[in-house]
Design brief:
Layout lengths: L3 E4 L8 H15 L8 H17 L5 H15 L7 H13 L8 H9 L3 E6 L3 H10 L8 E4 H4 L6 H9 L9 E5 L2 H10 L3 E5 L14 E3 L10
Length: 226
């Protein structure tokens, strides 16, 4: 019997792309730079690559934050801006952004009436709580678990060890993990013997050897599973 639901935040409940584009454009303004629409896809590609390397433990989060904007700005020939300083501005604006994915609030209201709900995120603790609160989603959660709080990233089993260590009488087989990342969310949940639901928001193909129990293209579909 399912007792708990773990759910990712970025690109599952909160639309990271919209939040990041807003934060990037605001940061450009802070530094007196002209932001153009074509720039955001460049950020997305570089950022996705860095996060993938982080999830595979090839780099640390400090490395990611240190390299991200030096690399992105360098692609546009902007070399007079300190990437570390730009990162600070970007993080500030991300903390202020809370664009919800369609159906997020309705899904959480539904799930919280049946199960205990826990956030499971690789984002910063205080930032994620602030964003969930601004989006009026925080009230549905029993607790928020982040890699910053637990000291280890998804998909490492130690992340889930620490999560379940904070729960009372809930076993992995009594929990569901919902997330958009096949590697960080779904592979981690599978290894930990949790039921997994892949939110295939971008309708992309499956990665080899990562087979979720369920796949949905919208959050609304999850009501038909749980």
């Amino acid at each position: 019997m399912i007792k708990a639901v773990f759910i990712d935040i970025d690109d599952t409940l909160l639309d990271f792309s919209k939040c990041a584009e807003y934060s990037m454009s605001e940061s450009f303004k802070d530094f007196g730079l002209q932001f153009e629409k074509f720039m955001f896809p460049v950020f997305e590609e570089i950022n996705a690559g860095l996060w993938h390397r982080l999830e595979k433990s090839e780099i640390t989060k400090s490395d990611l934050y240190g390299k991200r904007w030096f690399t992105v700005l360098g692609e546009f020939g902007i070399t007079n801006i300190d990437g570390y300083e730009f990162e600070k501005h970007f993080q500030k604006h991300i903390s202020e952004s809370a664009e919800k994915v369609d159906g997020a609030k309705d899904l959480l209201a539904y799930l919280s009436s049946k199960y205990k709900i826990y956030a499971a995120s690789n984002g910063p603790q205080e930032q994620q709580i602030k964003r969930l609160k601004k989006a009026k989603l925080l009230e549905y959660f029993t607790d928020v678990f982040t890699s910053e709080l637990l000291g280890v990233q998804k998909p490492e089993s130690a992340f889930f060890d620490n999560c379940f260590g904070n729960l009372d009488n809930i076993r992995p087989e009594e929990a569901v993990l919902i997330g958009d990342s096949l590697h960080a969310d779904i592979s981690g949940g599978i290894k930990y013997n949790m039921t997994t639901i892949w939110f295939n928001k971008k309708n992309s193909g499956k990665a080899e050897n990562i087979l979720p129990d369920f796949t949905v293209n919208s959050l609304t579909e999850i009501k038909n599973i749980l």
